[in-house]
Amino acid sequence: MSTKSEAYFQRAQNILPGGVNSPVRACKSVGCEPLFINRANGSRMWTVDGTELLDFVMSWGPMLLGHANADVEKAAIQALQNGASFGAPCPAEVELGELIREIMPGMEMVRMVSSGTEATMSAVRLARGFTGRAKVLKFDGCYHGHSDGFLVSAGSGVATLCIPGTPGVPDAIANLTLLAPYNDLAAVEAQFAAHGADIACIIVEPVAGNVGLIPPAKGFLEGLREICNRYGALLIFDEVITGFRVALGGAQQRFGVTPDLTTLGKIIGGGFPVGCYGGKRAVMEHIAPSGPVYQAGTLSGNPVAMAAGIATLKQLARSDYAGLEKRTKTFAEKLADILRAKGRDVVLNQMASMFTIFLTSTPVTDYATAKTADGAAYGEFYRQMRALGVNLAPSGFECAFTSFAHTDADLEKALAAAQQVKL
Ligand code: KE4
């Protein structure tokens, strides 16, 4: 007798490629089927079969306040009652833009879009339009969404599914993307020495989150800032994961390095489809209609998503980041120790309310070292934890996220489950 979730997955595979609308959700790399969810609240989700899950995926980052946060829901519902989308400017998009600038002063001007991919794609187009240059430098394993040029040596679902190369991306476009290993300033210098005059920008996850969590090495971000200054390239921080997560003001606040452009997503919409790019006024004014670089979107800045974003950021501005970081660190260290006690090599990378358990003895500082982790063992860990009611990321190349809704009892429950795992 199949479960309702299994039946939904069978049905879904007839209409949705792989039965999902985003590949990492398919759980392919961890050897099981996805669970279909019909309700979430706080730190919990419930499947269509009524199974309760303690969630550490949190929609891949957006739900820092927890699922179905009352203030965010109230704001969105109130906005919805006045209409979902006007296709005309509304006060909320100005208010959210000003709130973002207050939190991240380096974003002197912003443009709202509807996903992280739209934000990064637009920011790179702007960098190319502003500099008149074509090449972009990204880092092996970093993921900036699914725009053509970003799929070269990308992390997240591309790494998870071991997709070789970039099917569907013409060589002429893929060849405009230059690569360097994460944390390797010498490799970046070499790329600039060879191509500096043609490089429009560096786009970087200031804390890598798509090959699992990899913190920037000391001086790495400062080095990128200096190289971009020296060559007249723009520095883009892709803070889709780290924005409002590693600090309220993101990685640029935590590490004190200000990029020329920042891209945001996930948390900014409180679960609604919102992305944003922004930065120096002199650069942003090149965006249409104030400048010639075109970018547009039917639902950009829609009142419901803006209301959810405003409610989210206002609540985060009153939240105890230090307390959540301390609790997450203690929890992640205990989890790592439980796995070590089972005879597993574990490298734990943790920052703020995000962490990754790498089942390896090699310190993980870039994509190559992340790939030394034992994916099969992680899959076994994932499956057993899910059977015990704890929902971890269904990929060793993703991060686990806590939230302000995770209680100490939740964290203890997850540790108790891990104690029962047989690896
Ligand atoms: P979206 O287009 O998925 O909203 O954002 C793309 C993106 C851009 N930049 C960074 C640093 C990101 O992490 C992402 C998306 N992250 C993945 C998971 N790590 C989204 C999950 C999915 O693809 O379903």
Describe the structure.
The model has no long low-confidence stretch (mean pLDDT 97). Helix 3 (91-103) runs parallel beside helix 11. This protein folds into two domains: 4-65 and 320-420, Aspartate Aminotransferase, domain 1 (Alpha-Beta Complex); 70-316, Aspartate Aminotransferase, domain 2 (3-Layer(aba) Sandwich), CATH 3.40.640. It has helices at residues 4-12, 70-80, 91-103, 116-131, 156-160, 171-174, 185-195, 220-231, 250-255, 281-284, 303-316, 321-341, 367-370, 375-387, 408-420, and strands spanning 37-41, 44-47, 52-55, 109-113, 135-139, 177-180, 199-204, 234-238, 261-264, 275-279, 347-351, 354-358, 390-391, 400-401. The protein has 15 helices and 14 strands. Strand 11 and strand 12 form a beta hairpin. The strands form three sheets. The chain has a seven-stranded mixed β-sheet, with helices on both faces. A four-stranded mixed β-sheet has the order 1-2-3-13. Strands 11-12-14 form a three-stranded antiparallel β-sheet, covered by helices on one side. Helix content is 37%, strand content 14%. It is globular, with a radius of gyration of 21 Å. The structure holds ligand KE4. Ligand KE4 is lined by residues 22, 24, 60, 115-117, 120, 143-145, 156-157, 205, 209-210, 238, 240-241, 265, 398.
CATH topology of the largest domain: the name is: Aspartate Aminotransferase, domain 2
Number of strands: 14
- The secondary-structure class comes to alpha/beta
CATH superfamily of the largest domain: Type I PLP-dependent aspartate aminotransferase-like (Major domain)
Radius of gyration, taken over Cα atoms and rounded to an integer in Å: 21 Å
Count of individual domains: 2
Question: Residue share in helices?
Answer: 25-40%
CATH architectural group of the largest domain? 3-Layer(aba) Sandwich
| Biggest sheet character | 7 strands, mixed
Present as ligands are:
ligand KE4
Number of helices: 15
End-to-end Cα distance, whole Å, is: 28 Å
**How much is the average pLDDT?**
97
Identify low-pLDDT runs: none
Compressed to H and E, one letter per element, the order equals HEEEHHEHEHHEHEHEHEEHHHEEHHEEH
> Mind telling me the CATH class of the largest domain?
Alpha Beta
Question: What general form does the structure show?
Answer: globular
Percent range for β-strand residues: 5-15%
